[in-house]
Amino acid sequence: MFDYSEADVEGIKSELQTVEWQKLFCDTDVEQNWLAFKEIIEYLQMKYIPVKGRLNKSRKPIWMTNKALKAVRHRRSIYRKYKDTSHPAYYIRAVRKACDAGPCVGCVHTRK
To answer: CB burial class (10 A; 0-12, 13-18, 19+) of residue 90?
Structure first.
């Protein structure tokens, strides 16, 4: 991402003034003229406009508050526990499903 606020505008202007536009655009079609012009502009952009790093290092969207991010992380951790077959809650859920299925499946625990 280019940092246009730190651009060397005077350097760009001086380089653009040194370009011989008449020679550059003479005897070529419009497409070739456009490509030559674009190439010059992109070169000057890379030379005189610094590149800034990503400002927002966090992985959350700008609109998301910290409270909402905490809620999303909590929801994801609960879902991971729900899907994890080695978690104790998974065994309890399996036992309840077996008991709710009826006597043909067989209840794992005995009721008193």
So the answer is: middle
Residue-wise pLDDT tens digits, 29-80: 999 999 999 999 999 999 999 988 766 566 778 888 989 999 999 999 988 8
Query: Which residue, 36, 35, 11, 12, is CA-closest to 23?
Result: 36
Quick check: helix, strand or coil at residue 54?
A: coil
Exposure string over 34-58, b if 16+ CB within 10 A, otherwise e: eeeeeeeeeebeeebbeeeeeeeee
In sequence order, what are the beta bridge partners of 51?
2
2 in helix, strand or coil? strand
**Residue type at 19?**
V
pLDDT digits (tens, 9 = 90+) for 4-16: 888 999 999 999 9
pTM over 0.85: no
